Amino acid sequence: MNFHQASADCFIPDASPLPGALSRTTHLAIGAHQDDLEFFAYHGIAHCYGKKDAWFSGITCTDGAGSSRSGAYADVGDSEMQAIRAEEQRRAATLGEYGSIIQLGYPSAEIKDSNNTHIIEDLSTVLSIARPEVVYLHNPADKHDTHVAVLLRSLRALRSLPADQRPKQAWGCEIWRDLDWLIDQDKGLLPTTAHPELQASLNQVFESQIQGGKRYDLAVMGRRLAHATFLDSHHSDTETGFTFAMDLTPLVHDNHLDIVDFTLSYAERLKTDIELRLNKFR
Ligand SMILES: [Zn+2]
User: Fold this and answer.
1) Is 232 part of a structural domain of the chain?
2) Which keywords describe this protein according to UniProt (predicted)?
3) How far is the CA of 142 from the centre of ligand 1 (A)?
4) What distance in angstroms lies between residue 273's CA and the mean position of ligand 1's atoms?
5) Which of 100, 171, 173, 227 is 20 to 30 A from 139 (CA-CA)?
6) Total domain count for the chain?
């Protein structure tokens, strides 16, 4: 496969040949940074883990150059850090038995540039071979600029596919700004209970980020647990964790649906929910 960035990397953990290694994909996640996929698409990773008829593939779009660093990584330069993070991502793919992991190697600034279509072309190349049934994306209310830009480029790529090749289900998942604010009817519930040891080890792979002074490994697990506990006040917990997601399937299937209007409609329903509850008891 040809990609625009010279540093682009396609890693197949079980060394299956292309294109079969990619076309076996059933669940695909597209994220901005090394570690995003493991934090937001664990549901898909766990679903495919150990199966021969379901395969998870991941696409990480950025080169990992801009991460914060301290401790053992304080003096590591940008190019060395990129190599370390790419290797961490490959190690996660091996641990999680992914079908493939593709690292496109873009600087964040290129992804944020809406005139640059290279990233869309690369994503389309992968999507047209992988043809996933389910995709996991960043959600449009995320507060990280690069995450939002990656989502917008992903949506363009998905909408460029013929209608019958588009995924049946598209989830917009939480990382920067969680999705507890969605009203319950709008919450996409992605259980993360399965394979707890795998879950912990996948989060811990990204040592360079954790050592950089951010305990993502603990925070992600804390969020998943909190979601399971606070989801419903009247019933006992049946799952040990959830990732919350927005159902983005309508956006993927209708090229004319506006993403701003679509996203703000969720905020409108939250506003109405708050208003109705307050008015009910005052
Ligand atoms: Zn990220």
Assistant:
1) yes
2) Hydrolase
3) 10
4) 30
5) 100
6) 1
CA of 3 to the centre of ligand 1 (A): 21
Domain housing 85: 9-281
Q: How far is the CA of 276 from the centre of ligand 1 (A)?
A: 35
Instruction: Assign residue 168 a region (left: φ > 0; alpha: ψ between -120 and 50; beta: otherwise).
Output: alpha
Q: Is residue 182 part of a domain?
A: yes
pLDDT 10s digit of each residue in the chain, 282 long?
A: 899 999 999 999 999 999 999 999 999 999 999 999 999 999 999 999 999 999 999 999 999 887 777 777 778 888 888 999 999 999 999 999 999 999 999 999 999 999 999 999 999 999 999 999 999 999 999 999 999 999 999 999 999 999 999 999 999 999 999 999 999 999 999 999 999 999 999 988 998 888 877 898 899 999 999 999 999 887 777 899 999 999 999 999 999 999 999 999 999 999 999 999 999 999
Residue 3 in any domain: the answer is no
Please provide residue 188's backbone torsions phi and psi, each rounded to the nearest 5 degrees.
-85, 120
Question: How many angstroms is it from 1 CA to the middle of ligand 1?
Answer: 25
Report residues near ion ligand 1: CB below 5 Å: 32-33, 36
Please give the distance, rounded to the nearest whole angstrom, from the Cα atom of residue 280 to the centre of ligand 1: 40
**How many angstroms separate the alpha carbon of residue 88 from the centre of ligand 1?**
14
Backbone torsions φ then ψ of 104, nearest 5 degrees = -80, -20
Separation of 28 CA from ligand 1 center, angstroms?
16
Q: Is residue 4 a part of any domain in this protein?
A: no
Closest CA to 4 of 117, 160, 130: 117
Q: The tokens of 36 are what?
A: 């995003």
157 within 8 A of 143, measured Cβ to Cβ: no
Q: What is the Å distance from ligand 1's center to 197 Cα?
A: 23
In the reported structure, the alpha carbon of residue 196 is separated from the centroid of ligand 1 by a whole-number distance in angstroms of 22
59/22 Cα distance (integer angstroms): 11
